[in-house]
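Residues determine shape. Next comes a sample protein:
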Amino acid sequence: MSGWIPLRKRLLVRLLIASGLVAVCSVAATAWLAVETTTRALREEQGQVLADDMDVLARLSGYAATHPDWSEVGPTVRELAARTGRRIALTTADRTPLADSAPRGTALPLTAAATVDPLRTDTYTERGAQISGTDPRVVGPYRLTEGERGELDALAHERQGCFARYGIDLSLSRAPSGRPVLTEADGSADPAYVPDACADGRFNTPVVTEQKALKALEKGARACLTRAGLEPGVPLYLGVDVTPSALRAPSFAPSLAKMGSKVARAAQDCLDDARRTQLDPYAAPAAQLFLGGDKDTPAVRFDMSPGNKAKVVGAAGLVLAVTVAVTAVIATRLVRPLRALTEAAQQPPELHVRVPVTTRDETGILAAAFNELTERRERLESQRKAMVSDIAHELRTPLTNIRGWLEVTRDGVVDPDPALLAALHDEALVLQRVIDDLRDLADADADALRLHPEPVRCDELLDQVAAAHRVAADAAGVRLRTTVDGTPWLHADAVRMRQALGNLVSNALRHTPADGTVTLAARRADGDVLLEVTDTGTGIEADDLPYVFDRFWRAEKSRSRRTGGSGLGLPIVRHLVAAHGGSVEAASEPGKGSVFTLRLPGGPPR
């Protein structure tokens, strides 16, 4: 193909023509619209920005109130940034980044927009406002259990009915701790009158959870209260608040009415400090909130006077010039990565050349795909080399053992007794097993696995596998049992299925201690048949689960044969199941065991 392109077909020329036409039309339309709507739009935008800022602060305060740290706040920050269209960043007091919607390395604004501290600022009680005090969403030890909520709900409905008999309508709401709160129907104030028949004292009595939390609060505040002038033996009468203030503050209140105002204020400060200390482990630490974007200023409405018309024409010409310049820059940047891709593709394959991804458009996607292809090729090459090394390692050990024993036997150092011959036979079996596994994997890679499908009863299949491994299980002191739900059938190669299940059972027996249990189970699920091998062994770490089906992979990096085979059993299982049109999954919890599940298409009963 010729490298010369006609001028009219060049990307740069076409982009310039298209951008010029678009710029002329857009400038004419937007100039008139800007004159008519700028003032109103800016004022509305200012109000929306303020509302968005308060909503961001309230959302982040709610996150801090319900999480002990900021480790998982990233998705919330990105979601808020996408919704508001603003940059949102959270840092510690010394500006250590916690989360940022802007790219890494972007400078922070000069000053923080607010401090996110739910232990000292309440953004929940009144929407769009910041109230001094603790956010009621920081519940901590005051969170009621389900049983306690049910008991208090029953008392609340009883009290609500009692008030209704005296012509007082109450509405039922709920504090973040789970405690029900009764207010007047319009929510404007607490009930001003409480009939004697309704004042039984049960509804506002702290439950067990609250009593424990209040006792801990009293213990934490006692030393401070003594220093504030309160006698050590004076009871605090801490209780719960069943009025609407329970939605704003925690459910406790000291009885300090008979004290002097100075002592009362000091005691209240002690209780506030003790409560913040009590709730501190349940809330994220204070953070600085930075909001990006330029400060909006109101625009002045203008009319279409001659001077303003000249400004519009000048602005239109400037926009047109800028559009053409930007288009030229964009076109140049579009062509540059394509040239880099071409040069990289022409390099020798063993160099694994990558190209920088500088854009996020189609060209950037193409560059990223090229880099991923290069990485896969490099990874496959690395895996190939590692596989050759692993095969050499697996074959070298038994061959070295056989050679060593044969040499000392030939030299007369050791007699060829039955024990020696048995050991040599075991090493030969290891070699044979590795070679057979490699052959099965080679057949699977070449899509040459020979299958002879036939109707197979799952209960018989599991019994056969269990019988084949019964001796090994008894020798290891492990209980081997089977369980079948109904009579599921498979249309599969019975020999290959026994091989797959046998590999899983052998693996489970190696990793299950004495007195443990290995269970083979079969059941139907949504038209498929699930075969499960469950053990009560040592389990697999979560970081290791994605690699259990890789060839020659072992959790023990020492590659010891004491607890592991050749490292090919599980890859063979995966290929055998895939050849039957199924899938295999592994789930495990360290210290509690593992579950390997084979999902296969079900077959009709014979």
About this structure: The chain is about 50% helix and 15% strand. The two ends are 63 Å apart (CA to CA). The first helix runs from residue 11 to 66. The mean pLDDT is 77.
